[in-house]
Every structure is written in structure tokens, then in C-alpha cells.
Amino acid sequence: MTTDQQLTTTTPGPRLGNAPVSYGVYGEGAGGAGTSPDALLASMAEAGYEGSELGPPGFFGTPEETAAAFTRHGLTAVGAYVPVHYALGDDVVAYDLRRMEQTCRELAACAERSGERPLAILADEGSQALLENPARPWDDRSLALDEAGWRRLAELSARAVELAGSYGLRTSFHPHISTYVESPWEVDRLLDLTEVGLTLDIAHIQLAGGDPVQCLKNWRERINHVHVKDVEMDVIRRAKAEGRKDFDTWWADVCVPFATGDVDIDAFLAELLRGGYRDWLVVEQDRAPTPAKDYPRVAAEQAANHEWLAATVAAYR
After folding, report:
1. Rounded to an integer, what distance in angstroms lies between the CA atom of residue 151 and that of residue 157?
2. Residue 151 to residue 158: CA distance in whole angstroms
3. Which of 85, 117, 156, 228 lies at a C-alpha separation of 20 to 30 Å from 307?
4. Which of 107, 34, 46 is nearest to 73 (CA)?
5. Cα–Cα distance for residue pair 41/27, rounded to 1 Å
6. pTM of the predicted protein model
7. Would you give per-residue pLDDT tens digits along the chain (317 residues)?
8. Adjacent-strand bridge partners of 228
């Protein structure tokens, strides 16, 4: 029996999850008019997802209410996106860490029921200048962090890792377009300066000019979480060419249903699974806040994404 055959017959494959942002829920606004946290979880469960990341702090209620909601729908709380303004003032960072602690309490309550260790997924929040200059050329570091900025990012990341650990949580870091950890060289620097795990978002890294498969090979030992999305590269190309300043507006159009965009998800999954990855694959497709009238269409799209992703993963096992 070959190694691949042994892996297929004896090792469970990765579990598939989603995230509230795929349904238009993110930030402090937490969704569009008529957003229902319970309906969101019901949609995910009905589509076949086994888990979800949390939304913004308090979106599913108190920590106890959050844990009860996930249990009610048979879903695992995979983790939660934790934004930190690493380059802004101490007062802003203190506010971010207070919100992070609320998220940690929610994740810990879920973990108590599930027996699993969710992830606090750290991410830089960038700046207005970076929002107006996405996907910066690798040789133009005029907007990048200076040495003091990198030291501060490393110190704050260590504080965040300690905070998460105090609640029994694992940590990961999510490189993101229009932030100070965007390009592959910035991810390399992050990994050199910290001990945090890495969330590889295959579309964000491609939007920033990287090759998702090569980045997977380079960072495999640090990757402990994966976000899957498909994007239309022309959206960001047009935004850059036109000098667009309205990031949130054009960004809402960048994600597209799986297998209709420019990310070679098949090649990435083949390499990922060959390397033995068996943790969560989370569908995380940024979109604009979704009003209630559009919710059925969005839920149907996420159900189709699950069907495509499940079949593709099965084909490579």
C-alpha cells in the first residue's frame, strides 16, 4: 500500500468550516439589516459545514449564549478573527485588546462544551494610507513598517498570544491585503520575529502578489489554519489603476464563487493535502453587509461553495 493510500484509508480529512464574513457579517456593524445570528448558523449547518469562526465580539450574544448557539446547531467554534491596529496609538490598541478578551471569553465557553482548542486569529488593521494603496510593490517599502514598527508588532503579538493562552486558546496570524503584514516578505519578517502560527489565506496572498502554492511550501511548518476563497484579480487591478480610495466599496466585489475566479484552489489543495494538513479549511469570502432580502442568495452561494470544496478535497484524498 502506498503512502497516499494509507493516508486516504487511515487519516480523516480536514474539516470544512465557514465564517460570518462570508454572509456579510464583520466589524462593529455586524451585518446588514435583519441579520439573524441563529439563521446564519442554521444556514451553515444545513449546507454541511462542520464549524464556523465567530463574528465580531458579542454577535452571538454572551459567551454562554454563543456556546449554546453553536451546540444547538451542531457546529464547532473554529476560532475568531481578532483585529489589532498594530501601528496606531496605545489607546487604540488597548481598545482592540479589550475586544479580543471578549472574543477569548466566547471561544473559551465554546471550547468548554466541545473539548477543542479554538484559534484566536490575529490580524493587523493597517491604516488609511494602506487602504488606499493595496498590494504594494515588493520593492516599494515606503509605506512599510520601520524597525521600531516591527519591534512593536512583535511585542504586541506576544501580548496577544499570552492573553489567548490564558484562556486556553491557540493563536494564528492572518496576513491581509492593505495591512502591514500583506506581502510574502512581510510574512517572512513576521515569522522571524514571532512564534505565532500562520493562517494562510490563499486569495489574500495572491492579491498581494504571492503564489499560494509556493507560499505554502515556504511556510508549511508554521501554518495552523487555512482560509479558502476565490477572487477576481481584475477587481484589484482596476482599483489600483483608477486610484480608488473607497476600499470597502470595491473590496465587496473581489470574492466570487469557487472555481469562477483566478485562484487555482485545486493546485493549492493538492499540495496542502499531500503535505498532511488535516486541520480546518475555512471558507472566508469577504462581502458587503447582507440585508435580509439578499440572505437566501448568499446562503445558497455558500452551500454551493461547500459542495464544490467537499468534492475537491475528496478527489485529492
Report:
1. 10
2. 11
3. 117
4. 46
5. 18
6. 0.93
7. 233 433 334 457 799 999 999 998 865 544 444 568 998 999 999 999 999 999 999 999 999 999 999 999 999 999 999 999 999 999 999 999 999 999 999 999 999 999 999 999 999 999 999 999 999 998 899 999 999 999 999 999 999 999 999 999 999 999 999 999 999 999 999 999 999 999 999 999 999 999 999 999 999 999 999 999 999 999 999 999 999 999 999 999 999 999 999 999 999 999 999 999 999 999 999 988 888 788 889 999 999 999 999 999 999 87
8. 283
DSSP H or E stretch at residue 171:
strand 170-173
Q: How far apart are CA 251 and CA 286, in angstroms?
A: 8
Q: What CATH code is assigned to 13-315?
A: 3.20.20.150
Specify the DSSP element, H or E, that contains 153: helix 147-166
Distance CA 186, CA 145 (A): 9
